[in-house]
Amino acid sequence: MFIGLDLGTSGLRALLVDAAGRTIGDANANYSVSHPHSGWSEQNPKDWTDSCIAVMAALKASYPSDFAKVQGIGMSGHMHGATTLDAEGLVLRPCILWNDTRSHSQAARLDSNPVFRKVTGNIVFPGFTAPKLVWMAQHEPALFEQVDKVLLPKDYMNFWLTGVAASDMSDSAGTAWLDVGARDWSDTLLDATGMRRDQMPMLYEGTEGIGTVKPDIAALLGLPEDVQVVAGGGDNAVAACGVGAMEDGDGFVSLGTSGVVLTARDGFAPMAETAVHSFCHAVPAQWYQMGVVLAATDSMNWLSGITGVTPSELTQALGATPEPPNDLLFLPYLSGERTPHNDSAVRGGFLGLDIAHTRNDMTRAVMEGVCYALRDSLEALRATGAAPKRLLAIGGGTQSDHWVAMLASILDLPLDVPAQGEFGAALGAARLAICGVTGADPATIMTKPTLARTVHPDPSLVEPYAQGYARYCKGYSAMKALQ
């Protein structure tokens, strides 16, 4: 038996599977995000470990005989977070998360140094890890002087389990310290941020074992002795493992809290100016590229909070079939935007709001705006040479048939919708554990999910949405001019 742990921004999910990757059971635990100041986003790592204790207890209680046969654990986690430890391995301050923008000026300064894009193949975004440490050096110098190790969120979890400070290539690629092509820390980039190689974790591929669960932690969690822990990976790379997006051109579009358009790549072919992320995959000798929308279903959640109507009620009120866009436009820059703008300061809004517009019009505009933002990411990926012919549609937003149909027509691509079942990051993490413990070839383990259906673009809507997208592209400059 194997366990995949998916450390998300709002909660931890545990998936218990057998050696063939079949789901035995799962468990979840939630935690909160702290926003002590504008633009700040933090979490207490103890919330993660407490959640791990809770989900393991739930699995053991529900599946005692299977839980007793666990041989390996794989971990997926939200990327870019800065978890700083002192020489005793104690956490120095709350983890600064991926969606924290306090270090925007530090990121801009690092990005102005050409060596960063040359070595990493990526823009230095405010959410990345390196500028967070530069911010600490400037604003929390006493804490910065005590930093012995910097760990990404899922790496802190692995450290708690094993006592080993380790990371994998896919997660480390989002720090702005990794030579992504060479798959190694860059001493040049570390030096440019006042950091040293000995403050970094040891690097592994996602399928490699880093150690076994410590006896005291195994006893606390009720695990058998000598359970192996593999390095795991960043959430999107591991989600790609979970949906079998492993070969060049395989990809998915995710309608989650944030939005992602991702394609696997056989080689490293970055084009940083597109604001596309070019990162190592969670398996050896492979890479992937993705565009990121910071507020996807988060935009619908925002509208839900404003209107007092649940997201599902908002979307269901539109019916099952999308309509041509009207003149109301929504820019989903509620937390800034990554691809293609790399702009943490821009903010969203409605353009063309009329007294005759209804709540349904606003809901439709929000959904269209998110889809247009994902189209931005798709076009940026195409500029790098990626050419997906179809995409798997995943994430909570895909529960809305209306939204999926709209997205297919706006992207002008067929979207494959998985059947009910386990897939995504928790399964991908378990699959990494299976490969690491058994030596199985990832190609035989990381298969594609069974499909429920394929949603094709509506020929009658493709051109109207293309015109709507053209209007949307003008909206960014208009909004920037007002700010």
From TrEMBL:
Binding site for substrate: M79, H80
Site (Important for activity): D6
Enzyme Commission number(s): 2.7.1.17
Domain of life: Bacteria
A Pfam family annotated for this UniProt entry: FGGY_N
Residue ranges occupied by any Carbohydrate kinase FGGY C-terminal domain in the UniProt entry: 252-434
Catalyzed reaction equations: D-xylulose + ATP = D-xylulose 5-phosphate + ADP + H(+)
GO term, biological process aspect, one: xylulose catabolic process
GO molecular function: ATP binding; D-xylulokinase activity
UniProt keyword annotation of Membrane present: no
InterPro entries reported for this sequence: ATPase_NBD, Carb_kinase_FGGY, Carb_kinase_FGGY_CS, FGGY_C, FGGY_Carb_Kinase, FGGY_N, Xylulokinase
Record key words, sorted: ATP-binding, Carbohydrate metabolism, Kinase, Nucleotide-binding, Transferase, Xylose metabolism
Signal sequence, start to end: none
Functional note: Catalyzes the phosphorylation of D-xylulose to D-xylulose 5-phosphate.
Protein family (similarity comment): Belongs to the FGGY kinase family.
Family matches, as HAMAP family: XylB (MF_02220)
Name of the protein described by the UniProt record: Xylulose kinase
Protein's organism: Ascidiaceihabitans donghaensis
